[in-house]
Amino acid sequence: MGSEKEKIGMIGIGYVGLVTATCLAELGNRVVCMDIDAVKIESLKNGEIPIFEPGLAELIEKNRERLDFTAALEDVFKQCEIVFIAVDTPPTFTGDADLSRVFAVMSSLPGMPDGHHILVMKSTVPVGTGGKISGELNRQKIGSIDYVSNPEFLREGSAIGDFLNPDRIVIGSQAPEAGEKVARLYRKLDKPILMTGLATAEMIKYASNAFLATKISFINEIANVCDEIGADVSVVAEGMGYDQRIGDSFLNAGIGFGGSCFPKDVTALKQIAGNSGYHFQLLTAVIEVNELQKRRVVNKLKKHLGTLTDKTIALLGLAFKPNTNDLREASSIVLASRLLGDGAYVKAYDPVAIPDAARAVRGVLLCDDVLSAVDGSDAAVLVTEWDEFAELPLAEMKQRMRHPLIIDGRNFLDPDKIRAAGFTYEGIGR
Ligand code: UDX
Asked: How far is the CA of 155 from the centre of ligand 1 (A)?
């Protein structure tokens, strides 16, 4: 067992699990996908894809023959030596990661078919978890199981490209042979593979996300200062980005970061540090800056409109970023709640997230297109930089809106064009 092209198991067919399984299939492997949600498994068998991710449906279809779906854990352990775990690890109320789904898998191991298995952790788990699980597996002497940490760095919206063309692959293990077998799955990609210890691999994931989040909060604070002194943060970021030590990515100022990873991982790293007795001051500020940034648009609106009571505000975009229907920790949710709290009416349009928005943002009138969203509104706020918003129907918008005011929460629009169309334009720090 375990040679290339052998079946690989994937436990947890959420976002990460489904993308990883599909890409492993694309590399020529057969993958057995398991989830406890039998309804989801049935729909996947029928070709229904539960998430919106560009290119994923096509890639699943292309690799259909190599992908099996099951709701039974035994099926996975019967057929696969290498078994990935990609269950979700949501934050608990203390900000620690909830590992109950990981432990549920671990506790079923004694009942699983014998043979050598390599458990590969894809889910983001607190630093030290791998060491603890490895120790427990050895202590209980459950069959012959090795444990490998293989953190994912996939971005929603470009996850397939990120998997097939990664900057690096990180493999942490205490068992070199097991680590090597997992590394072999990625050799075809011809990218740097970093072999490390378990805790180091786990830390690389947290440190990478925390650093990127820090970059965003940093540029957002620069933007806030730019607002005060009349500098343009977009050009400041461009000027900084030419410095190769800084780099030009993740320097787009806006109304804060969201999503399923950054907010959760930054908070978890702060907790991990705190639990081990270290106060991570910088991350505390990164989180606070982000929370305040989500609310900054409210003051910008008040500056132009006075009180927001009975004003109508149109939100363009709800997803936490373009090319996804994901609303987790989206800035739109905080902004909408704040506006409603200030007595405004809130209308919104998003190209794909509307069906999911009904639950996430209560009290918001969800619309089918830009024009119905801005109809009768006192301001339009660009929240998510969807491609289709690059060409807004400005003339019709101007006719339909009560006040010609556009707040660009992502510095995405061309200010000259917006102003030439007769609008007041305000970005974030420009
Ligand atoms: C992120 C990491 O990039 C990925 O490596 C990890 O595996 C999961 O978390 P993701 O959450 O999909 O991926 O989105 P990403 O594209 O990184 O954006 C995160 C958030 O930061 C979004 O809300 C985005 O709008 C915001 N962002 C990003 C900025 O505000 N400014 C930027 O310059 C970049």
From this structure: 7
- Our mutation pick for probing the ligand 1 site, out of 124, 125, 255, 321, counting the most ligand atoms within 8 A of Cβ, is 321
Distance, CA 349 to ligand 1 centroid (Å)? 21
Q: Are both 189 and 300 inside the same structural domain?
A: no
Nearest to 375 by CA among 386, 385, 387, 367: 367
In a domain, 48, yes or no: yes
Q: pLDDT grade, residue 312 (50/70/90)?
A: very high
* Total number of domains constituting the chain: 2
pTM higher than 0.85: yes
Tell me, yes or no, whether 180 and 294 share the same domain.
no
Task: State whether 329 and 185 are in the same domain.
Answer: no
* CATH number of the domain that residue 244 is part of: 3.40.50.720
Q: What percent of the chain has pLDDT over 90?
A: 85
Pick the catalytic residue: 23, 80, 226, 261? 261
Q: How far is the CA of 114 from the centre of ligand 1 (A)?
A: 41
Read off the pLDDT of residues 51-90 as tens digits, 9 standing for 90 and up.
Answer: 889 999 999 999 999 999 999 999 999 999 999 999 988 8
Range list of β-strands (E), 185-322? 193-196, 312-316
Check whether residue 281 and residue 413 sit in a common domain.
yes
Overall average pLDDT of the 114-130 stretch? 92
Question: Which residue lies with its CA nearest to atom 24 of ligand 1?
Answer: 257
SS3 420: helix
> Is 378:402 a contact under the CB 8 Å cutoff?
yes
3-state secondary structure of 95: coil
For residue 17, what pLDDT is reported?
97
Crossing angle between the packed helical segments 198-229 and 129-140, to the nearest 10 degrees: 160
- Host domain of residue 109: 7-196
**pLDDT band at residue 187, thresholds of 50, 70 and 90?**
very high
33 labelled catalytic: no
- Based on the fold, state whether residues 242 and 334 are members of the same structural domain: yes
Condensed to tens digits (0 to 9), the pLDDT of residues 196-253 reads: 999 999 999 999 999 999 999 999 999 999 999 999 999 999 999 999 999 999 999 9
Element (H, E) at 210: helix 198-229
Which residue, judged by its Cα, is nearest atom 31 of ligand 1? 252
Residue nearest atom 1 in ligand 1 by C-alpha distance: 155
What does the pLDDT read at residue 4?
Answer: 42
155, 291, 385: which to mutate for ligand 1, most atoms within 8 A of CB? 155
Which residues line the pocket of ligand 1, CB cutoff 6 A?
A: 152-156, 209, 212, 216, 250-252, 254, 257-259, 261-262, 320-321
Amino acid at 338: R
